Amino acid sequence: MQLPPSVTPRAFDRLAEIGAADQGQALRVAVEGGGCSGFQYDIRLDTPCEDDLKLEGNGQVVVVDSVSLPFLAGAVIDFSDELIGARFVIDNPNATASCGCGTSFSI
C-alpha cells in the first residue's frame, strides 16, 4: 500500500495566512503531463471535489485528485520562503529527476 502525501505545518500555516478556508478554497496539488522533465505540478487554490483526497490541518485543506495520487505517494508538501521567492514546494520520493526550477520532474 502506498503512503499518502503529507503536508507540513508550515504549509498549513501559509494557507491560513492567505485565508484559503475562509473563502471555501483548498490548495490543490495535481500532476499533469508537460514541463521539461515529463511531468509538472499544478498547485493552485481551488474548490475541493467529493472524490479528492483531503489532507487537513490548522483549519486548512490540501486536496489531491485520484489521478495524481499515485505520482504523489509519500510526497511532502511544504512552503518555502527564501530570498528568491516564496512558494509551495513538493519533496517527491517518486521523482527520479527534476528540472532546475523544481516545477517539473520525471518518474
Keywords:
9% helix, 1 helix, six-stranded mixed β-sheet, mainly beta, 107 residues, 9 strands, globular, Hypothetical Protein Aq_1857, Chain: A, three-stranded mixed β-sheet
Quick recap of the structure?
By secondary structure, this protein is mainly β. It contains 1 helix and 9 strands.
What can you see in these coordinates?
The protein is mainly beta and 107 residues long. It has a single domain, classed as Sandwich (Hypothetical Protein Aq_1857, Chain: A). Helices cover 9% and strands 44% of the residues. It has one helix at 9-18, and strands at 6-7, 26-33, 39-46, 53-57, 60-64, 76-82, 85-91, 97-98, 104-106. Strand 2 and strand 3 form a beta hairpin. The chain is globular. This is Heme biosynthesis protein HemY. It comes from Pseudaestuariivita atlantica. One of its GO terms (biological process) is iron-sulfur cluster assembly.
